[in-house]
Amino acid sequence: MEAPIKSSFIPTEPVREIKQPRVARGGGLTDLFVLASIVIFVGSVGLGIGMFLYLQYLTANTASKVEQLERAQQAFEPALIQELTRLHDRMQAANIVLGNHIAPSVFFRALEQLTLQTVSYSSLNFQANEIQNMTLEMDGLARSVNAIALQADLLSKSGIVSSPIFTNITRTAEGVQFDLSAVVNPASLRFIQVVRAGQFAAPASASQRAPASSSQTTPASASQPASAPQQDSRPAAPDPFLPPSQ
User: Fold this and answer.
1) Which stretch of DSSP H or E encloses residue 148?
2) Domains of the chain
């Protein structure tokens, strides 16, 4: 026998409540951490790509600058510049050497011109250990004390010798012996200044120096009468500069 068909759709059993599964707490913090990690990773990748591109740019820019510098150097001829630099250094070194070099020949030429005919020197000691400290020591013989005084005045006014001091003045049968010490002016003996002044000329021959020496000693002999009252009244000693009479 067939079961009867129910025409009502109303359930006869009570409605049961469907329970949904609970989601474990803490899932939001994990998602945030994962999101932050992704952002940091993407940022790191982007920063690395940017640094790589910037490095490539700097490399290309440096190569371009180096090429421009090489072109500029080639335009200025580096070989010529190097040669001119070496020439400049040599000229500077030559100026230093010439600036410190002294010309002793100028001193001896001046001493020859300043020495009176009545004065002679038997020894000479010229010391130039330092360019700024040059001294002179000489022993000599003069005809009289007045000749020594006149010689001291000429040396003082020459500009080459300063502060001449005559010591150990002693009368002998041959004349008046003396010791001379003085300071030499280094500026007057510098080679470069002598050349600029035109004083470094070739020495004249004996025939050319004879008239000059006679003309130079004339004022000295002419000036001796002014000091005649100071001469000694005793008989004059024989002249050591004249040949003995036969």
Assistant:
1) helix 145-158
2) 104-201 (3.30.1360.100)
